[in-house]
Write a structure and sequence with these properties.
By secondary structure, the protein is mainly alpha-helical. The protein is built from twelve helices and three strands, in the order αααβββααααααααα.
Length: 268
């Protein structure tokens, strides 16, 4: 009985400490930031070994990665990203011109498809998308989803090391679905709004995220591509972003696209 009570006390203490350590206001996540990084690293390893993800080499495409890195760093250096120093913020380019998508894993591993890069025609739009994906990682949306899906007790057993294989299984599951992750309307709205906040202090137009959704709606209607089918409609997202821009009173002036054209031309 003493051992049982002791374990309960330890478990409760761990729960309280972990719930109290998140940097984002009104966010309760059982995974610690270190757990996010560990899970993200395992997901990244799964992606690297999966032939459906053709990751471009940094050695072979240094100019492309230099451009993306500078854009990501411009967002991170605004001091608006809560886990700027804790997460890895490692960006990768996925070669697939038929996919208009980008995604982020826990811990800050970011993946951008060449199809999306070539579909967009200016740096503000890409910066807006990157800001959105950085927000998903920084607000720890995947970890929050896992908490809802598995429950606190399961994650407690996982973190206490009672079944180490479970983390690998979860990483495999996340890697298998991460490109098409279905976040709630609440999470998508949070990420859209954070993108505006992230871009406001940079040289990019703070409404960059809406450019993609405007074009999708104009060309493909309100439903958009399949991966957006479970998300809020593009028109609703444009309206939400515009409301946030008005609230922040930030610049929407478009930047010169010449560097972006060179970036696109550096891709295969």
């Amino acid at each position: 009985m003493k051992i049982s009570l002791f374990r309960v006390w330890i478990s409760l203490s761990l729960v309280i400490s972990l719930f109290a350590c998140d940097k984002n206001n009104n966010v309760s996540v059982f995974f610690s930031p270190e757990d996010d990084v560990e899970l993200g690293a395992q997901v990244a390893a799964e992606i690297e070994s999966d032939p459906q993800y053709q990751i471009l080499s940094r050695t072979q495409y240094p100019e492309a990665y230099q451009y993306l890195d500078s854009m990501v760093n411009a967002i991170l250096n605004t001091n608006e990203v809560a886990y700027r120093n804790e997460f890895v913020w490692d960006v990768h380019i996925v070669r697939d011109d038929n996919v208009l998508n980008a995604f982020a894993t826990p811990g800050g591993y970011i993946y951008v498809y060449t199809g999306l890069i070539k579909y967009l025609d200016n740096p503000d739009a890409l910066a807006g998308v990157l800001g959105h994906e950085i927000a998903h990682a920084d607000l720890r949306h995947t970890s929050r989803n896992l908490q809802k899906q598995y429950g606190v007790q399961f994650l407690l057993n996982l973190l206490l090391g009672e079944d180490p294989s479970q983390l690998e299984q979860i990483a495999g599951q996340v890697a298998g679905t991460v490109a098409g992750l279905q976040f709630s309307r609440e999470y998508e709205t949070e990420a859209d709004e954070k993108s505006v906040e992230y871009l406001a202090p940079t040289g990019f137009a703070c409404d960059g995220a809406k450019i993609f959704f405007q074009r999708i709606e104009e060309e493909q209607g309100s439903s958009g591509p399949e991966f957006l089918s479970t998300h809020p409609s593009p028109s609703n997202r444009v309206e939400n972003i515009e409301e946030k821009v008005a609230e922040e009173n930030c610049s929407t002036q478009r930047t010169n696209p010449s560097g972006y054209v060179q970036f696109v031309n550096s891709l295969p």
